[in-house]
Amino acid sequence: MKKFIVLITASMLALTMLSGCGSSADNASGEASAPAESVNVAIAQFAPHGSLDNCVEGFKLGMEEAGYVEGENVTYDLQNAQADMANANQIAQSMAAAKPDLICGVATPMAQACYNVANGEIPVIYTAVTDPVAAELANEDGSSVGNVTGTSDKLAIDAQLEMIRKFMPDAKKIGILYTTSEANSVSAIEEYKELAPNYDFEIVDSGISQTSDIPLAAADLASKVDCISNLTDNTVVSSLATLLDAADKAGIPVFGSEIEQVEKGCVATEGLDYIALGKQTGAMAARVLAGEKAQDIPYETITEYSLYINSKALEALNMSCPDELKSEAAEVSAEE
What we know:
By secondary structure, the protein is an alpha/beta fold. The protein contains 13 helices and 13 strands. It has 2 domains: 174 residues, 3-Layer(aba) Sandwich (Rossmann fold); 139 residues, Rossmann fold (3-Layer(aba) Sandwich), CATH 3.40.50. Helix 7 packs parallel to helix 9. It is globular.
């Protein structure tokens, strides 16, 4: 099975912790000792769904691996905006007013809100931002626009389309439901439409503006397409059960974009593991806390993905994993 590539190596992190401010020298065994000073880190999460929960869990694990242990030398202030932009702005403002050592913004809308109020005074580390350039958190060359950096959960769209074609040789139309105000979703739609003809697909997209739009939009979309490919769109993912129900009634599969969605009932994904993404982000945050400048660290992306399948969901639609994909597919336990 394909493996994830994490761009930060242990040796780089150890060197950073040794040389940066707030770090201490290696102990006699040669292992990096814990940071000498306690820090306060604010974590602002945009929506309450599994993918972003996993980002937060991974972030804390990445920090812990770098020597920042919760309850010992790091205190976290974790708040959730419940997928409401007004809440997101209020949370970001209150966090900036408290002046933590670092703010972690989880998902594009939250990352933007945090960066906008930090005023360059507090470093902001983001995660689960699909397109940092479109979100105006990074420049075209990958460099930072200010005191901010982080990790992208950019979708493996070409690999996803190739996978769908192997699962569904006769399919013509792929439906995508997305939130029109999410910059990452808009850019993903554009890439899907650009690449779809290479696999003889037509993309049928349906835009929504709020959660209440989803039931009708999902039912209408499911009636027009052969399958649905779901994005990492926060509003849609928060209502994934509604989308899956509409697809089930239409007798079509939903392909997810990461492992959590497959656990919840999507048939398969060529996607990523958000705990791994969070760990990568935590390692970057530790570098900043150790003395590096966020603006000097280009944003990072996981560059290889894994194939996850939900056999139970496939069987319900009289589908199966193609023989050519079985050797690389990882089975995901479906939620009851």
